[in-house]
Amino acid sequence: MPDLEHALDALTGRVSSLREARTAYPADLAQTLDAALAELDTAVELLAEAREQLRKGGKRAAGKKDGTQRELKLLRQVFRAFPVPVIVLDGGGVVRRINPETSRMLGSPDGYLVGRSFPLLVDVSRRAAFRSHLTSVLQTGQPSAFETRLAHQGRTHTVQVALTRLTMPGEPQQMVAAVALPTEVQLPEPGARRPEQSDGALLIAAAKRQDLLVKMGTLLLDEQALLRPVAMARATRLLAAEWADWVIADLVRGGLPRRSVVVGPKDHPVGELVRQVEAADPGASQVVLQVLERGSGVVQEMVDDETMLGFCSEGPVLTAMGAGSLVCVPIGAGDGALTLVRAHDKQPFTLADLAVLQEVGLQLGLAVRAQSSYQSRSRAADALSASVAPRNLPDVPGYEAAAVYHPGSSVGAEFYDVFPVSKGCGFALGGAAGKGEEAASVSAMVRGGLRVLSVWESDPDLVMRKVNEALVAQGTGMFVMAVAGFVRGREIRMSSAGHHPAVLLQPDGSVRYAAGGGVPLGIAPEAETCVETLTVSSGETLVLYSEGLISSRNDRGEPYGEERLADVLGRCAGQAPSTVVKAVESDRNAFSGGQVWDEIVVFALRGV
Asked: Is this entry keyworded Hydrolase (predicted)?
């Protein structure tokens, strides 16, 4: 086909001249565009001529099959050497053939787009129009031309597309040739390497992935990520800022995926779309279900199916997003799925991105589980703390009462309580020897026992002994130091089981310690307690305190001690109980530099 080859060479020269004209005169594109459209018509005629010669060659005798094969080979060479981007599409818009010029323009490897949906390269606002043009060309056989934008591999081109119906030998269905001539983008020089393939770009990309892992690890290990449910929101914001246009986190709750977080682009208004994506059911997303079922991530450098993330009121979610590439990875071990979407004018996700994001998903899953476990333990600790201290002090007839309670650095075991008894009021204070949830639960049991048994017993010592019997019978192996007292009028009868002695503060500032003593509860079946009855007159203040107060230490390792407590109390003569407990609290903080290791309880009862 010498004439065809000559015509092809001439077309190549003219297209080259048009490119130079567009570069030299960017402000005057009208004439250049008209000439380019004329050349498109010429290209279509050349393709038609080649097709006609091929059809004639098919009618030759069987002995001339070698000639037909040579013509087919020539036609392939013509297609590959065509100086403008040409794509052969089937009736559904799927790419069946693509010439090197198209691959060069779009920045993709040869053959990369074969088998993929061409409309996904078209600007979202023009996809419906493109499909209409495609259908019209197939049905009527009349060529069609229109302007649109193509985006792929981070490159965006405004192009004039001409569609022509083809009938290709060996193909059961009719095809469409799409010729795309860029009108606004300077094409890269022939043979130029793709930017993402350069050594420097590869090194920068690797450093960026490593930086993401470091940032994500720092973010998820922050204490606030355990104290409050912020890990997922912070992680998705980080990914959206540096790695994707859209980030969606779906967490499994009750065996089903539930949408947790949606972060959209910030460079254009998408508030309504964000709400629609938030409301979409992740159970209808085939990519999310696939990742959860297989336990491994998937990456689509070019989105093939726009429905894979489900639908919203505007149609497929990915269509509304303008999605070009997508990656979805598991969160933890079946805890959920993390989906990242980039627009089709951005660099697509790669297998290297998939690997680093799978690591991010694993870290995020561990953080979510740690947060859940921590908060569960925190709630349990709060419940235990609530079970060892009253929310509010009840009124004690004839007295003013006040207390301070500071939890320690871990779940502790100190308790105090004030409760009604027959013809008066009762109080209790103490703590199990030990730390942690078990010690706290034992303290809660003793506190509850003292309160309940005080309903039936008139003597705090009988109450203390029965609680001792119950504690020994439980076999916890723990012992509890405690003091309980019944207030009736001006008399306070107290029973001590290994607890620190109470302090009676006189109006003149003098301090007298009660007897205290006894053996802690839970050591022997027969309790050994110390019983004492005190008279608290108007203006006198009875102060009880925990082991954590006396054993507090300063930076030299010295204990706070009962002598320092007596000095502080002596300076509080005549003060209200609330002032007394705050003075003790403030002095202890100054002594220990504000550090609190064990629980601190101070309870004051002043006669009025």
From this structure: yes
Q: Could you tell me if 146 and 241 lie in one domain?
A: no
Is 566 found in the same domain as 481? yes
162 and 255 assigned to the same domain: no
* Contact indicator for 447, 454 with CB cutoff of 8 Å: no
> What residue ranges in 268-413 does DSSP mark as E strands?
298-300, 311-312, 315-316, 323-331, 336-343, 399-406
Q: Cβ neighbours of residue 560 under 8 Å, at least 6 residues apart?
A: 549, 550, 551, 552, 553, 554, 588, 591, 592
Yes or no: say if 393 and 399 are a contact pair by the CB < 8 Å rule: no
Please list the ranges in the chain whose pLDDT falls under 70: 1-6, 8-9, 16, 18-41, 44, 46-48, 50-75, 77-78, 153-154, 168-171, 185-203, 221-229, 267-270, 371-389, 408-412
Strands (E), 82-131: 86-89, 95-98
The residue out of 184, 214, 232 marking a domain boundary is 184
Phi-psi region of 454 (alpha: psi -120 to 50; beta: other; left: phi over 0): alpha
Adjacent-strand bridge partners of 339 = 248, 328
What tokens does 86 get? 């040409």
Q: Is 557 left (phi over 0), alpha (psi -120 to 50) or beta?
A: left
Q: What sections of 521-576 are H helices per DSSP? A: 547-550, 561-570
- pLDDT score, position 82: 74
Q: What is the DSSP string of 12-65?
A: HHHHHHHHHHHHH-TT--HHHHHHHHHHHHHHHHHHHHHHHHHHHHHTS-GGGH
Q: Which stretches of 464-558 are assigned E, i.e. beta strand? A: 480-488, 491-497, 503-505, 511-513, 530-535, 541-545
Whole-angstrom distance, CA of residue 496 vs CA of residue 530:
5
Total domains, the chain: 4
Domain boundary among 322, 348, 377: 377
CA distance 178 to 87: 5
Order of strands across the sheet with 491-497?
414-421, 424-432, 480-488, 491-497, 530-535
